[in-house]
Amino acid sequence: PIQVKKVCCIGAGYVGGPTCAVIALKCPQIQVTIVDLNQARIDAWNSPDFELPIYEPGLADVVKATRGKNLFFSSDVDRGIQEADLIFVSVNTPTKKSGVGAGFGADLHYVESATRRIAAVASSSKIVVEKSTVPCRTAESMRTILEANCKPGCRFDILSNPEFLAEGTAISDLFNPDRVLIGSLQTQEGKDACAALASVYANWVPKERILTVGLWSSELSKLAANAMLAQRISSINALSAICEATGANIDEVAHAVGYDSRVGPKFLRASVGFGGSCFQKDILNLVYLSESLHLPEVAAYWRQVVELNEYQKRRFSKIVVDALFNTITGKHIAVLGFAFKADTGDTRESPAISLIRDFLAERAYITVYDPKVEEAQIWMDLSEACPHLTLDQIKRQVTIVHSALEACKSKEAIVIATEWKEFREIDWQTVYNNMTKPAFVFDGRLLVDADKLRRIGFKVKVIGRGEVL
Ligand code: NAI
């Protein structure tokens, strides 16, 4: 097979950074360069004290072991492209905000400009790997652009290699993936390129977990996997509403259902709703794809997964307002957690943002604490979520603090928005003593021991539990 010696990754984000750092660790014979247009991000990856731009358990150790040896971070995109034999395109593909397909389709202009840059500066043959999550048949557009612009003697082979890592567990997911998926054209050249990438992964991934399929199947499998994962969450969240109305307990229901080996126990945890940059975006992509293929019933089916998630977030805000005697105007509420899930600093589509937006609309005072999210990020997210408020107005209602205890002090209610482990270990007696009474806890993540808290004196409301306060 073709020997890959130099890898370049375009896009030093949540996917490009960890994936290619792990390739560098597992393949000391390969030189890996991760490039990005964002100089600040590259500087952070290169920071002397390993203050990396993203937080992932175990990531700093991987970077410490490889940076400056066979792993490099650079803003010189062109040089990265020129030197590599294999290039990952791992740029962002957000939902389009305007134009055709606004609100559903993927904004592919970052993928396209990275592809055009490859075509413009490459002076030798390259294997180009689509790592970003893209709508089905994007590889075809990339191939057309590359072929229309390549220099004599240069050939481009295109592969699809979607990433299945989950934020918060990225490093262990990459070390031990359930599967690696590689899609290629079924031509001899396509299969050779596929074998070259497979041999990179074979340095640490067992061969039977490296699946090779056609390009379009590969692209669609990524959207399908995220759609089905999100669908499980929306299914259990839909059931959590029934639990609350009937007195059933969603934990018990999930446990009983998950025991069925055809269903399985994972990813059945009810919550205030899913967040993250991928689930909603990828389902909306699938919806858009279905519609453009004239499959409206299929589109409506998947759209409902996103709608149920919006409903769940709204529903949780309403639970808070209802329990606090139907008004939170002027009340002080602590929001614990701002990241979209535990063990990440990522806030994209975080349910905490929707909750705080709703609370601000009710003119409550909010104090936020998250162990990993930067203050500036919180202000940016809230400004974006509340376009009718100025940042000054937001800051009059929102305070950011540096510990859970501080956040809860003198508040009337605590809302748990992220399942950070440290929130389970809070000294609840001290928290209770320092709160305004009656003291409420709203657990949007099935995190606390509700009975224990009730014994202390709290009024506790847990998602998916029918009990009265
Ligand atoms: P990100 O936004 O963290 O990183 C993308 C990076 O690409 C940014 O730093 C940006 O500056 C850079 N970039 C954009 N255009 C560029 C260009 N033309 N040249 C050089 N750099 C450029 O995004 P993230 O989260 O890493 O996602 C990347 C892709 O991976 C997306 O398609 C996403 O759907 C997919 N994905 C994300 C997962 C996640 O957990 N975040 C998991 C699996 C897939």
Automatic annotation (TrEMBL):
GO MF, any single term: NAD binding
Binding-site residues for NAD(+), renumbered to this chain: 11-16, 36, 41, 91-95, 132-133, 167, 278-281, 348
Stored InterPro entries: 6-PGluconate_DH-like_C_sf, NAD(P)-bd_dom_sf, UDP-Glc/GDP-Man, UDP-Glc/GDP-Man_DH_C, UDP-Glc/GDP-Man_DH_C_sf, UDP-Glc/GDP-Man_DH_dimer, UDP-Glc/GDP-Man_DH_N, UDPglc_DH_euk
Annotated metabolic or biological route of this protein: Nucleotide-sugar biosynthesis; UDP-alpha-D-glucuronate biosynthesis; UDP-alpha-D-glucuronate from UDP-alpha-D-glucose: step 1/1
UniProtKB keywords: NAD, Oxidoreductase
UDP-glucose/GDP-mannose dehydrogenase C-terminal domain location: 334-450
Cellular component per GO, a single term: nucleus
Enzyme Commission identifier(s): 1.1.1.22
A single BP term in Gene Ontology: UDP-glucuronate biosynthetic process
Family label: Belongs to the UDP-glucose/GDP-mannose dehydrogenase family.
PANTHER family for the chain: UDP-GLUCOSE 6-DEHYDROGENASE, UDP-GLUCOSE DEHYDROGENASE/UDP-MANNAC DEHYDROGENASE
Name of this chain's protein: UDP-glucose 6-dehydrogenase
